[in-house]
Give the backbone structure.
Amino acid sequence: MKIYIAQAHSGESSPPLNLGFGGKDGTMKSTSLVIRPGTSDDLDAFFELYWMSSLEHTHYSGQLDSLKPKQRCRKYIIDRQREFLKDANYFFLVAEKDNNILGMVTGHVGDRDEAAIYAIERLGFIDEVCVSPEHRKHGVGKRLIKALLEQLYDTGVGYVGVGVAFKNPAFHFYRTQGFTPEGLWLIQKEQSFQKKKTKR
Ligand SMILES: CC(C)(COP(=O)(O)OP(=O)(O)OC[C@H]1O[C@@H](n2cnc3c(N)ncnc32)[C@H](O)[C@@H]1OP(=O)(O)O)[C@@H](O)C(=O)NCCC(=O)NCCS
C-alpha cells in the first residue's frame, strides 16, 4: 500500500548547500560529502541504487518475485534517465564521497492528475531516493532531499509530493523532512475479494 505525502513550500529559503570543498584555510577536504547534479557518467551508479531500492520495495509489498530480470530493466531505466537529463523539468542529484556515489535522488515538476479540474496544477514530485545501506542514517538522504527540494521549489511550485509504500521505513524519513500524509492508495488482493464474495 502506498501513502501519498506532501510538503508545502514555507517560503523560506534554506542556507546554501555545503558542497564540501575547501575549509576556512582554503585547503581541499577530499573526504567531505558532496551533493552535485548527476551526469551521464553516473547512470550506472544510479541504476544500481535504483535496483537496490526496487528490491526493497518488493519486500515491503510482499511480492518478492514481481521484478523482471535486472538486465532487462537496466537498459530501459538508464535510457529513460538519460532522456530526463535533457529535460529541464527533471532533476537528478548524487551524493559523492571520495569518488564513490553513496546515494541519489531524482524528481520532476509536472501537472497533477486531473490538472484540468484542480486549481493546483503544477507540483513537484520526488521520484526516487536511495542511499546505499552501509551509509544510511548518517544524514546523506536528508542532504539529497534538501538539495532536490531547493531545486523543485525554485521552479515556483507550492507543493512537493511523493508516494511511499505504507510499510517502507522511508515513510518516517519523509515525516522528519516535513512531509505530511495527504492521501492513501488502497489496494485489494483478489483473494480478499473472493473471500468477501462467498460470504454474501
Ligand atoms: C529513505 C532513505 C533514503 C533515508 O536515507 P538516510 O541517509 O538513511 O537518511 P538520513 O540519515 O538523512 O535521515 C534523515 C532523518 O530520517 C530519519 N530516518 C531515516 N531512515 C529512517 C528509518 N528507516 N526509520 C525511521 N527514521 C528514519 C533519521 O532518523 C533522520 O531523522 P532526524 O533528521 O530527525 O535526525 C534510505 O533509508 C534508503 O535509501 N532507503 C531505501 C530506498 C527507499 O525506500 N527510498 C524511498 C522510496 S519512496
User: Anything to note?
Assistant: Residues 53, 56, 129-131, 136-142, 162, 164, 168-170, 172-173, 176 surround coenzyme A (CB under 6 Å). The chain has one domain: 2-199.
